[in-house]
Design the sequence.
């Protein structure tokens, strides 16, 4: 079998939240498939840079606080200056704030919605505009969640944002498929990253969640790699608006 359909040779991928966790896992996988990486984030990305370079790919770090829309054009300009073009955008950066729904603050609501949804949409919009203007196709991969499907506990803004990510993925896909832009999402299950540190530190919740995962283990950042490469590559050219769960079977339970 010829696996070149999954090759990302000659492609450039922008990955937000590249310094750690799932973003780092996806940077490494995309680099291994041949893509150069533009890592976007507010923290030091040297660990990811070293991992990507070990795969033989280039890495450009772009500092940006994605709480606001202000850095968007600079991210795309920097990617264009260094690599001439960007082909793939992975909207991975996201935050979670936990509080009982009756006490949930407006500032937590706004921070979560702005980071997880508002920036994701407007970065995608600017990325797509550049592709459309230059008559090139491309790939957008949004990171959704199990809480795109379920309600969750003590995370109302996160659930609202991730449910909307799944919806807006379909909405963008419907409008941009005709330009050769694929917009899809990945819904990770319960993964070992900073995002779930609090959950994992509660032994009862940890065991409860583990007991419900058919695969019998929490996910690791490397588990995201296959789905990310698939949705970034020509292998998924006729797939639009779909959210692919990488969840050890959680949703099938
Ligand atoms: P993580 O380790 O907390 O990573 C989140 C990433 O987003 C970090 O790189 C973080 O940067 C970045 N980020 C957050 N706010 C930012 C901002 N204002 N500006 C720039 N970067 C910002 O958790 P993760 O699990 O890898 O999360 C990655 C994505 O997967 C998120 O969208 C999350 O919601 C989603 N997800 C995770 C799970 C899970 O089980 N872990 C499940 C479903 C979905 P800093 O390190 O600087 O904070």
Sequence:
């Amino acid at each position: 079998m010829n696996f070149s359909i999954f090759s990302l040779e000659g492609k450039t991928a922008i990955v937000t939240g590249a310094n750690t966790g799932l973003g780092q896992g996806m940077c490494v996988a995309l680099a291994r498939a041949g893509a150069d990486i533009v890592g976007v984030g507010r923290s030091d990305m040297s660990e990811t840079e070293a991992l990507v370079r070990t795969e033989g790919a280039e890495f450009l770090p772009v500092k940006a606080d994605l709480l606001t829309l202000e850095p968007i054009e600079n991210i795309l300009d920097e990617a264009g200056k260094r690599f001439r073009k960007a082909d793939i955008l992975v909207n991975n950066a996201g935050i979670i704030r936990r509080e009982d729904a009756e006490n949930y603050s407006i500032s937590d609501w706004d921070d979560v919605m702005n980071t997880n949804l508002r920036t994701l949409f407007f970065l995608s919009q600017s990325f797509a505009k550049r592709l459309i203007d230059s008559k090139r196709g491309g790939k957008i991969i949004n990171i959704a969640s199990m809480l795109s499907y379920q309600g969750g506990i003590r995370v109302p803004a996160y659930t609202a944002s991730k449910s909307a990510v799944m919806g807006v993925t379909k909405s963008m896909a419907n409008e941009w498929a005709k330009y050769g832009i694929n917009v899809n999402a990945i819904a990770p299950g319960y993964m070992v990253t900073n995002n779930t540190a609090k959950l994992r530190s509660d032994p009862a919740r940890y065991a409860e969640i583990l007991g419900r995962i058919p695969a019998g283990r929490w996910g690791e950042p490397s588990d995201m790699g296959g789905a990310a490469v698939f949705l970034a590559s020509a292998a998924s050219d006729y797939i639009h608006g779909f959210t692919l769960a990488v969840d050890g079977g959680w949703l099938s339970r």
